[in-house]
Amino acid sequence: MGTTTRLVLASNNAKKLAELQQLFAPLGVTLVTQGSLGIAEAEEPFGSFVENALVKARHAARLSGLPALADDSGLAVEALNGAPGVLSARYASLFGRPKSDAENNRALLEQLQPFAAPSQRAARFVCALVAVRSTTDPEPLIAMGRWQGQILSAQVGEGGFGYDPLMFIPSLGRSVAELSAAEKNALSHRALAAADLVAQMREVWHLG
């Protein structure tokens, strides 16, 4: 990789960009969104987080000519056989509703109504991070992070985004939406995956 310091982030999510930029700061890299380079979002046709992250990273690398980083993440609820899974961002659309954080949360609570006990509402946030040096890179770097918790019966907290107000972390006694940005960046599924990927980038790409 030499002196390369720019990576294309295969996302246009401003909150995700800010989170990942901070997590990858130790490497001295700068993340630029694919949208800022005029690159449209890739299709995400697969059923797993890793496969979707890989196709997004290759797409961004191919159209930018730069190394690329992609994140595919979501919520997996055990009682729902891993749903919403890769459809986390548009879960409400499965039930004929517009996709939004509020509608996604409402749909999740409705699907979990038969499961009232906390022990029946085990869930985890899952993050797959993939980095490629080029679209034909035969050795993509892949990291997974998981953050275990339980789904609450109502939203708690004002911070974060997505399913954060419904995700309760028993070891902290708070929902993810009640955590500060610093706490979330230290503990989250994305933080765990990023720490792994940073180590791989140092070893394989000789960054940092």
From TrEMBL:
EC number(s) from the headed UniProt entry: 3.6.1.66
Catalytic function, reaction form: ITP + H2O = IMP + diphosphate + H(+); XTP + H2O = XMP + diphosphate + H(+); dITP + H2O = dIMP + diphosphate + H(+)
Signal sequence extent: none
Group of enzyme by EC: hydrolase
Domain of life, source organism: Bacteria
Cofactor annotation remark: Binds 1 Mg(2+) ion per subunit.
Cofactor requirement: Mg(2+)
Keyword Transmembrane helix: no
Family statement: Belongs to the HAM1 NTPase family.
Assembly and binders: Homodimer.
Function in brief: Pyrophosphatase that catalyzes the hydrolysis of nucleoside triphosphates to their monophosphate derivatives, with a high preference for the non-canonical purine nucleotides XTP (xanthosine triphosphate), dITP (deoxyinosine triphosphate) and ITP. Seems to function as a house-cleaning enzyme that removes non-canonical purine nucleotides from the nucleotide pool, thus preventing their incorporation into DNA/RNA and avoiding chromosomal lesions.
Name of the protein in its database record: dITP/XTP pyrophosphatase
Gene name as annotated: rdgB
